[in-house]
Amino acid sequence: MSSDLQAELEKEPPYAAELFGNQIDLARAFTQRLAQDSETFGLLGPRELSKIWSRHVINSGLLAELIKPGSQVADVGSGAGLPGIPMAIAQPAAHFTLIEPMERRANWLKAVVQDLKIQNIEVVRARAEEVKKNDFDYATARAVASLDKLLKLMTPLIREAPNGTIIAMKGSKAEQEIEEAAKILSKFGYSQPEVLILGSGKAPETATVVRTFLK
Fold first, then answer.
1. Average pLDDT value for residue range 38-53
2. Fewest CB within 10 angstroms: 10, 102, 112, 132, which?
């Protein structure tokens, strides 16, 4: 990595080692790779490098606390591997399937997983609706679509799992998106969604997620 790029990167926050534990070296390697390839593959905006740990890697890794060991997770529209790769690093006892339709990005994800030897990740180049597996325990997404559209994309992936759960990273309009998705939530048979704020008092930036499960 060039010295110029290195200078732009956010220094690793102390909380990273707590979050990723004995996998911290893997988190560091992914962060370096994400920064190195970001411009070439259009993964993050150039101004995001100064917040790469806080806003992207740690922020995504926070979701791992919601994932039970032994479970199977579908990360929809994985793109830059967010939140899927940091989650998989922080929760090595679960298995993650990264679903990405764009060939260029899917190939990048496959190369990262192979090069870093991340054992609990599989990459599938496909649209969410093309994936045949329907018993993932969780489906996750970050910056893919509004909640009502996400539910249509993700419900088939968890339909056959007991209490299949949606975990969607959202921002300040999370409550509004829940209201706008009320009809879809009722139609598909979801529980009342909850808005969770992860990392309060610990992480450099908190993560806001909407979580709901099929009843």
1. 93
2. 132
Please say if the pLDDT value at position 63 is more than 60. yes
Residue owning tokens 């039970």: 68
d(CA 153, CA 117): 29
- Chain-centroid distance of CA 129 in Å reads 18
* Rounded Cα distance, 210 and 166, in Å: 8
Q: Under CATH, to which class is 3-213 assigned?
A: alpha beta
Query: 3-class SS at 22?
Result: helix
CB-based contact 164:198 (threshold 8 Å): no
**Region of residue 136 (left: phi > 0; alpha: psi -120 to 50; beta: else):** beta
Q: What letter represents residue 203's amino acid?
A: A
Kindly write down the DSSP assignment for every residue of 150-198, as one continuous string: HHHHHHHHHTTSTT-EEEEEE-TTHHHHHHHTHHHHHHHTBPPPEEEEE
Contact 212, 192 (CB under 8 A): yes
**Residues 6+ away with beta carbon under 8 Å from 213:** 163, 164, 165, 166, 190, 191
* pTM summary value: 0.96
Lowest mean pLDDT among 47-51, 64-68, 154-158: 47-51
- Tokens found for residue 57: 């890697």
